[in-house]
Amino acid sequence: MRLIVDIGNTFTKLGVSDKTNKITNLVSFTNNNQQIYDYIVSYSIKNAIISNVGSNNFKLIELLKNLEIPSIFFNHKTPIPIKNLYSTPETLGVDRLAAIVGAFSLFKNKNILIIDAGTALTIDFINEKAEYLGGNISPGIEMRFKALNKFTSKLPLVSKSNNFNYIGNSTKNAIISGVQQGMINEIEGYINNFSKKYKNLKVILTGGDSFFFEKNIKNTIFANSELVLYGLNYILQYND
Fold first, then answer.
1. Are strands 12-17 and 2-7 parallel, antiparallel or unpaired?
2. pLDDT for the residue 56
3. Averaged in consecutive runs of 10 residues, what is the pLDDT profile of the chain (240 residues)?
4. pLDDT in tens, 112-152
5. Which H/E stretch holds residue 104?
6. Distance between CA 60 and CA 135 in Å, rounded?
7. How far is CA 228 from the centre of its chain?
8. Is 95 one of the catalytic residues?
9. In 142-151, which positions are buried (b, 16+ CB within 10 angstroms) versus exposed (e)?
């Protein structure tokens, strides 16, 4: 079995894959080392890959060494099956890069737009030649709500809602509609612009808010909330 680990700021996601390369037994822990340990030792692990955008988890690193599990600690120098044309590869988040590889693993030789709706909204593009050209970063939905509250004296802090109108009829509803409809327009704008330039564009939506936007975006998209794990699994296979 292969061990796939994605360490975030709050949660650690884990999964295992077998000879079929299918990821199974997905779990998410609040970076609890005992839970992580119990999960790992319950499988016969051949090798592992770890993506870490949170704090350095030295206990996990020590655990893998003690268990003598060969491990890849994913970074911009790790060999990957695509060409990374980002001018500053060392500054590209490993979670973004893993998601890009995950998209490639699902749709090889296709133009792909990857939309990650999480803490930040990231837009990434890989072309049919397996070349990653770059992407854009803007605030995520919760960050936008918090910014309106923090940088104004009277606007309240609100959170996302599944029930909202195109135009809000109160201050609270105006914030909800403004933030959410604004992000929907932003995402649809990217999809429309890339679709005009690139043939047979595949659009993948991922991230913590992916299912919220999947329900509200009219364009044809493919939602996969575990795209980072798919990418890490593919990178581990590539380096096996």
1. antiparallel
2. 59
3. 85 86 86 81 92 71 82 94 96 94 95 93 97 96 96 95 90 96 94 94 90 80 89 94
4. 999 999 889 999 999 999 999 999 999 999 999 999 999 99
5. helix 94-106
6. 31
7. 5
8. yes
9. bebbeebeee
Exactly one of 6, 95, 124, 209 is catalytic; which is it?
A: 95
Tokens (6 digits) for 85? 């044309």
* Cβ-based neighbours of 156, under 8 Å, separated by 6 or more: 149, 171, 172, 175
Q: What's the token pair of residue 147?
A: 């910014």
**CB burial class (10 A; 0-12, 13-18, 19+) of residue 167?**
exposed
Tokens standing for 32?
A: 């609890």
Q: What domains are defined for the chain?
A: 1-73 (3.30.420.40), 79-240 (3.30.420.40)
Closest C-alpha among 229, 223, 227 to residue 12: 229
Give the pTM.
Answer: 0.89
